[in-house]
């Protein structure tokens, strides 16, 4: 085996080898996904190649190879604890897009490992799907002995997410010998977590299509997706006990040693000294996190309180805290940028990256000092009777992250009571809700005097409309002109904005007048059916403006609303026509449906309901509308709900009709064809009391993917905690941990499967109009931070097609206890900022931000919008402003 190779040489050997096999070398792309809102980060080697596999884009070659940097932070608590967990890693890949298949893919893997890297054939062990005898034969033909071939089952060696392209996979393991684990091949056969048999390669043979019902048919075009763990291969070739004991991490660790009072001990892997193990862990966390931080910042992500920025901030703060444990009291991470750069094959703007990191460290330095003092004081005072409310106080006073509090307490043998935390959040939210609509009611009463002046809703046909301003008001009276920094209300003669009603959330979008862009905060109806538009900015009565609805947001609302009707139909089919709709809530992220039933539906019954809804979706049934009266609707046996009756004029009602499925009274907006819903998944069914149950569900393949990913993450975290607590206790748990870790490899292909599964749906609608296009926004739980007993979520929206105001309002409805601050780049070197909250005064927050960044804008307590005149908005400063 070649043991004198550097990581750079190993990487280049991979690329050169596959280039010799007529593969096109594709350079590592940015960690920020391009034109793929389903991903927060590039998280696998295939993630940047999705468009080629789905057919959306012609590949430059049917054979591609790469070494792609990727980030995953769902296992952050395991970094430094296990031998192989990282937040940033490189995935070596070779891909066939309708070209070669099993035989060639297996031969390439064998040739590279045995003839290029000179690995001992006797050290290689292969797993394969038990029914895939073709793969087994190919390995046997290459000289792999039967005792080195392990048959796997559907769970371990068949990549399948339940819908779309799927197929068996074959994994390659390297045996590091008895010194890593005295147990033998049973470790692999019983799927037991270990450091002896290291999975270094996974080949997925995508050859079947799953129709969602477990029926598999061959794919016309078969593909190969390979993922090989770069850090793992380097560790084996450089004979490092762990991935950290290689030239990818050790130079960073040695640099940290120079700043610390402690030393890293490579040999402690075998010595297992408890004190040194902790010290080694601190070094490993720093080395891992700084690699992620440097690469992410270089790709354009800056520390912030939202989205990717929050993850980078969290990584910096965790690494900074580990430095304190090593005796490093001041900012030091920025000094490591150069050594990180030396291990990479692409350029890093060292000065810029170091400057950003240093600023973030200095910002956190005082925060962590004050927070730890307060936390330790409370612990010394009350011990295990730790007051949970101190967690909120720490965030209020010092902006101390809850996840860091959790880590510190766990080190002391305590755990946070997250149920209690949720109770405190709800309690605080309830106190705030009682005050938030006081001013709005005054405006509504004023506007309600406008009888006979009903505005025309044109949103069924148009998403843009030139309109005249009929009336304006603030929280006190009618106005001729509104103020820049004040929440105001408007009625237009025509509007494309749907007002909240019938279980559907209002539209979001912009009011445009010349260069002035004002974000719509909310739209609701008064008792005379006027659409009241809530906004913040300067408008003059009787002037003309252009109203633009956020199309992406509207389409997601339509998907969930239409899915609600299909769900209602399916429930009646399953439980009988006596099922009534007692309430629903549809926004762009999810839907809920309340209904009475004698006992809680079983999992089997819910599965049948879900399957029926997906059957309706796959039927590709077009939607039709019919305007009539309630009496005529009754004659047509249209289903009516209390919500619809409340929000519609009885003399002019609207029916939505999906032929052969359902005809319902509904004033909401709906998707043009059921196929555009793509996928329906029930997330939960909860008992709301008095025999009423609430189904919570999601739609679209992207959100289904997110759900699957979250399930994997939760299982990983749960099992990791068990394993960390007692690694030697129960082989069952070790088996489960390993199984979940295997999902890390499968996840490399998960995104691709979803996109390919989406292909059949997209083919059915490829001739539809452009208005059916959508831009998704992914809400990331990790971006939430808490201050003054309140949760905040700050994000920079990079997609200019997203209507930030609509997005903020939607997020507010979806997450009522969170205050959202969204930033979006505009023309003329300006930044749009939107603040939306049910628990804090959005206008006050916006005013603070405007003051610092020379901004202008207005709004109300619930939603506020402004324009910041500084191009380089310091996101970190925005969090500081909130703390002020």
From TrEMBL:
Stored Gene3D superfamilies: 2.40.30.130, 3.10.310.40, Bira Bifunctional Protein, Domain 2, Threonyl-trna Synthetase, Chain A, domain 2
Record: residues binding Zn(2+): 561, 565, 666, 670
Keyword RNA-binding attributed: yes
GO molecular function: alanine-tRNA ligase activity; aminoacyl-tRNA deacylase activity; ATP binding; tRNA binding; zinc ion binding
Location of the protein in the cell: Cytoplasm
SMART domains, per database record: tRNA_SAD
InterPro entries: aa-tRNA-synth_II/BPL/LPL, Ala-tRNA-lgiase_IIc, Ala-tRNA-ligase_IIc_anticod-bd, Ala-tRNA-synth_IIc_core, Ala-tRNA-synth_IIc_N, Ala-tRNA_ligase, Ala_tRNA_ligase_euk/bac, Thr/Ala-tRNA-synth_IIc_edit
Catalytic activity: tRNA(Ala) + L-alanine + ATP = L-alanyl-tRNA(Ala) + AMP + diphosphate
Cofactors (names): Zn(2+)
Coiled coil: 705-760
A cellular component term, taken from the record's GO annotations: cytosol
Primary localization: cytoplasm
Alphabetical GO biological process terms: alanyl-tRNA aminoacylation
Key word rRNA processing present: no
Pfam family, one: tRNA-synt_2c
Entry's EC annotation: 6.1.1.7
Keywords carried by this UniProt record: Aminoacyl-tRNA synthetase, ATP-binding, Coiled coil, Cytoplasm, Ligase, Metal-binding, Nucleotide-binding, Protein biosynthesis, RNA-binding, tRNA-binding, Zinc
Record text on cofactor binding: Binds 1 zinc ion per subunit.
Occurrences of domain Alanyl-transfer RNA synthetases family profile (ranges): 5-699
Family: Belongs to the class-II aminoacyl-tRNA synthetase family.
PANTHER family linked to this entry: ALANINE--TRNA LIGASE, CYTOPLASMIC, ALANYL-TRNA SYNTHETASE
Comment block on domains: Consists of three domains; the N-terminal catalytic domain, the editing domain and the C-terminal C-Ala domain. The editing domain removes incorrectly charged amino acids, while the C-Ala domain, along with tRNA(Ala), serves as a bridge to cooperatively bring together the editing and aminoacylation centers thus stimulating deacylation of misacylated tRNAs.
HAMAP family in the cross-refs: Ala_tRNA_synth_B
NCBIfam families: alaS (TIGR00344)
Protein name as annotated: Alanine--tRNA ligase
Organism: Mesomycoplasma conjunctivae (strain ATCC 25834 / NCTC 10147 / HRC/581) (Mycoplasma conjunctivae)
């Amino acid at each position: 085996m070649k043991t004198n190779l550097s990581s750079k040489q190993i990487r280049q050997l991979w690329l050169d080898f596959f280039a010799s096999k007529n593969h096109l070398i594709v350079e590592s792309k940015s960690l920020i996904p391009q034109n793929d809102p389903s991903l927060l980060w590039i998280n696998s080697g295939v993630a940047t190649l999705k468009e080629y596999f789905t057919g959306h884009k012609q590949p430059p070659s049917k054979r591609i190879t790469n070494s792609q940097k990727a980030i995953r932070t769902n296992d952050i608590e395991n970094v430094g604890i296990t031998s192989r967990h990282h937040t940033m890693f490189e995935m070596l890949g070779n891909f066939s897009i309708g070209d070669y298949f099993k035989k060639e893919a297996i031969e390439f893997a064998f040739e590279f490992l045995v003839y290029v890297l000179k690995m001992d054939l006797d050290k290689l062990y292969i797993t394969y799907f038990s029914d895939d005898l073709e793969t087994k034969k190919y390995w046997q033909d290459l000289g792999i002995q039967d005792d080195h071939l392990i048959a796997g089952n559907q769970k371990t060696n068949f990549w399948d997410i339940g819908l779309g392209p799927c197929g068996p996979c074959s994994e390659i393991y390297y045996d590091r010998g008895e010194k890593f684990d005295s147990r033998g091949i049973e470790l692999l056969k019983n799927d037991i977590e270990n450091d002896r048999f290291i999975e270094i390669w996974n080949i997925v043979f995508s050859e079947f299509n799953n129709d969602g019902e477990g029926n598999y048919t061959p794919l016309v075009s078969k593909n190969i997706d390979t993922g090989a763990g770069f850090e793992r291969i380097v560790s084996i070739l450089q004979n490092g006990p762990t991935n950290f004991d290689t030239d990818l991490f050790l130079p960073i660790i040695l640099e940290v040693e120079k700043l610390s009072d402690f030393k890293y001990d490579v040999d402690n892997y075998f010595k297992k000294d408890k004190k040194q193990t902790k010290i080694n862990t601190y070094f490993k966390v720093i080395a891992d996190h700084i690699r992620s931080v440097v690469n992410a910042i270089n790709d354009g992500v800056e520390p912030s309180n939202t989205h990717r920025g929050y993850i980078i901030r969290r990584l910096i703060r965790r690494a900074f805290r580990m430095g304190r444990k090593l005796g490093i009291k001041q900012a030091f991470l920025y000094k490591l940028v150069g050594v990180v750069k030396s291990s990479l094959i692409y350029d890093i703007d060292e000065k810029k990256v170091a400057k950003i990191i240093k600023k973030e460290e200095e910002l956190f330095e005082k925060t962590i000092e004050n927070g730890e003092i307060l936390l330790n004081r409370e612990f010394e005072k009350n011990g295990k009777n730790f007051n949970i409310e101190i967690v909120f106080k720490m965030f209020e006073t010092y902006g101390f992250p809850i996840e860091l509090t959790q880590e510190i307490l766990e080190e002391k043998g305590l755990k946070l009571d997250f149920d209690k935390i949720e109770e405190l959040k709800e309690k605080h939210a309830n106190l705030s809700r009682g005050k938030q609509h006081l001013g709005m009611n005054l405006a509504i009463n004023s506007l309600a005097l406008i009888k006979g002046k009903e505005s025309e809703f044109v949103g069924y046909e148009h998403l843009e409309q030139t309109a005249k301003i009929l009336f304006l008001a603030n929280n006190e009276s009618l106005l001729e002109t509104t103020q820049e920094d004040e929440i105001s209300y408007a009625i237009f003669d025509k509007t494309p904005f749907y007002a909240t009603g019938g279980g559907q959330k209002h539209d979001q979008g912009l009011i445009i007048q010349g260069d002035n862009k004002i974000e719509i905060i909310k739209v609701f109806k008064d008792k005379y059916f006027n659409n009241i538009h809530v906004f913040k900015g300067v408008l003059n009565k009787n002037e003309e403006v252009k109203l633009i609805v956020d199309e992406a947001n509207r389409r997601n609302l339509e998907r969930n609303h239409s899915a609600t009707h299909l769900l209602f139909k399916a429930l009646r089919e399953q439980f009988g026509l006596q099922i009534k709709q007692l309430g629903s809530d549809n926004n762009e992220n999810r839907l809920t449906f309340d209904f009475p039933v004698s006992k809680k539906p079983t999992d089997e019954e819910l599965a049948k309901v879900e399957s029926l809804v997906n059957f309706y979706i796959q039927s590709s049934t077009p939607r039709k509308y019919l305007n009539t009266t309630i009496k005529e609707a009754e004659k047509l046996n249209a289903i009516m709900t209390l919500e619809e009756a409340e929000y519609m004029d009885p003399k002019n009602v609207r029916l939505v009709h999906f032929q052969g499925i359902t005809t319902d009274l509904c004033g909401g907006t709906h998707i043009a064809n059921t196929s555009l819903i793509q996928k329906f998944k029930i997330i939960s069914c909860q008992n709301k009391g008095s025999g009423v149950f609430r189904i919570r569900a999601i739609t679209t393949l992207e959100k289904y993917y997110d759900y699957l990913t979250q399930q994997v993450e939760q299982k990983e975290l749960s099992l990791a905690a068990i394993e960390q607590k007692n690694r030697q206790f129960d082989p069952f748990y070790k088996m489960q941990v390993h199984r979940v870790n295997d999902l890390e490899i499968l996840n490399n292909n998960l995104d691709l499967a979803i996109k390919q599964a989406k292909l059949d749906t997209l083919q059915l609608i490829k001739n539809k109009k452009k208005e059916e296009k959508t831009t998704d926004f992914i809400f990331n739980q990790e971006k939430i931070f808490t201050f003054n007993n309140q949760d905040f979520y700050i994000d920079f929206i990079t997609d200019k097609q997203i209507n930030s105001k609509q997005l903020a309002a939607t997020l507010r409805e979806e997450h009522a206890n969170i205050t959202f601050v969204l930033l979006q780049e505009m023309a003329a070197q300006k930044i749009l900022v939107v603040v939306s909250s049910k628990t804090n005064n959005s206008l006050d927050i916006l005013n603070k931000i405007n003051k610092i960044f020379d901004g202008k804008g207005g709004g109300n307590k619930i939603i506020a919008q402004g324009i910041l005149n500084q191009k380089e908005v310091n996101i970190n400063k925005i969090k500081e402003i909130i703390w002020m």
